[in-house]
Specification:
single chain, 413 residues, Aspartate Aminotransferase, domain 1, Aspartate Aminotransferase, domain 2, seven-stranded mixed sheet, four-stranded antiparallel sheet, binds pyridoxal-5'-phosphate, pyridoxal phosphate
């Protein structure tokens, strides 16, 4: 049995911060196990966004009035919180985006177009989310780049020997996730960065699943680019960030034009661009959401990611133990280092049916390809069920989920 008693994380207290956890679904208490798709939002984050709209809603940077100053201070304040959260060297290395997806598209379109040419090679892992595949495929088609795939073994662990062997003198970039959203595999990104750098390539790390579960230190990882979304770290949707080393960002051209990103605009002389980070933040950003992003990082800081991680690891161990006892259930992704994500299939039962029926019992899990079709194809399936955990989940919820799953399997088989 997994012991939950010696931990400092007071889960009852954590749960009180999340109003949505009190709701019912189909007359049953909500058991929310879809955290890898989006996490729930604590009251302090909801309040911070409401407070922005109630008290200091104004456009940022250009205003010379009190509300604009306050909004700018809050917006830039989040930039500093993000910097501290990932231990970046400088706050100008943090660019606000709509999320991980937009951050990766920014690198592909700005850095990629400026630095890549026909025949250059990009290494992408088999574990990637579509948002770290498709932007590179679009670019590759246009610039005639070559994409090479880092393979995984039967546990869903990257093959590091194959990784080393994929490098050639044309390899320019490695694009890899820190933690797989489909299988939960934690990748050795510091080691991968070291290998990439020795080969003269850069590394972009998709940290969408790492930010909620691990202490991220971009300097220790030596990542050249790092991306994550606020909505998977207890923050609002529609906002996220790209970290880039200052020397790289400074040399990169803008990718979207508009207000906020220029120094001077002229028809007679060349338009000049703002310094980083503003060069990459064209137009009015999601100011209220950025404020909420900051509040979410404050919330995580209050509870300490190390405690949250060790709580989630016990939830993972407990769920793995219980699910393994179910006849005909197979867990996909059995890496020794995993985050709190379990993908599974059940013999004789469609994942879609399981997802729909278990929702009737109040349990929210995700079914489908999890935006990782190349990975599922490799394992010979087109869909799995996925349960993923957050700081507010409890062992009792996992027991409810497992009992519900057994009932559902009995119904569909
Ligand atoms: C969710 C996720 C993304 C995409 O994040 P968005 O917020 O949808 O942009 C990318 N990569 C991984 C690993 C994810 O889990």
């Amino acid at each position: 049995m997994v012991d939950f008693n010696d931990l400092e994380l007071d889960v009852a207290q954590v749960r009180r911060h999340f109003p949505i956890l009190d709701r019912e679904v189909h007359g049953k208490p909500l058991v929310y196990l879809d955290n890898a798709a989006t996490s729930q939002t604590p009251e302090s984050v909801i309040q911070s966004i409401a407070d922005y709209y109630r008290r200091y809603n104004a456009n940022i940077h250009r205003g010379l009035h009190t509300l604009a100053d306050e909004a700018t201070a809050a917006y830039e304040g989040t930039r500093e919180k993000v910097r501290a959260f990932i231990n970046a060297h400088e706050h100008r290395e943090i660019i606000f985006t709509r999320g991980t997806t937009e951050a990766i598209n920014l690198v592909a379109n700005s850095w990629g177009r400026a630095n890549l040419k026909a025949g250059d090679e990009i290494l992408i892992s088999r574990l990637e989310h579509h948002s770290n595949i498709v932007p590179w495929q679009l670019l590759a088609r246009e610039l005639e780049l070559r994409i090479k795939v880092i393979p995984v073994d039967e546990r869903g662990v990257l093959d590091m020997h194959a990784y080393r062997d994929l490098f050639t003198e044309r390899t320019r970039l490695v694009a890899v996730n820190h933690i797989s959203n489909a299988f939960g595999t934690v990748n050795p990104v510091a080691e991968m960065a070291d290998i990439a750098h020795r080969q003269g390539a850069l590394i972009l790390v998709d940290g969408a699943q790492a930010a909620p579960h691990e202490r991220v230190d971009v300097q220790a990882l030596d990542a050249d680019f790092y991306a994550f979304s606020a909505h998977k770290v207890y923050g609002p949707t529609g906002v996220g960030m790209l970290y880039g080393k200052a020397t790289l960002l400074e040399a990169m051209p803008p990718w979207q034009g508009g207000g906020e990103m220029i120094k001077t605009v002229s028809f007679e002389a060349p338009t000049t661009f703002a310094d980083i980070p503003h060069r990459f933040e064209a137009g009015t950003p999601a100011i209220g959401e950025v404020v909420g992003f900051g509040a979410a990082l404050d919330w995580v800081g209050e509870f300490d990611l190390r405690l949250i991680k060790s709580w989630e690891q016990r939830l993972l161990a407990h769920a793995t133990q219980e699910l393994s006892r179910i006849d005909g259930l197979r867990i996909l992704g059995t890496a020794p280092h995993k985050a709190a994500v379990i993908s599974f299939i059940v013999e004789g039962a469609h994942s879609q049916d399981i997802g729909l029926l278990i929702d009737q019992l109040g349990v929210a899990i995700r079914t489908g390809h999890h935006c990782a079709q190349p990975l599922l194809t490799e394992f010979g399936v087109d869909a799995t069920c996925r349960a993923s955990f957050a700081a507010y989940n409890t062992p009792e919820e996992i027991d409810i989920f497992v009992e519900a799953l057994k009932r559902v399997i009995g119904m569909v088989r």
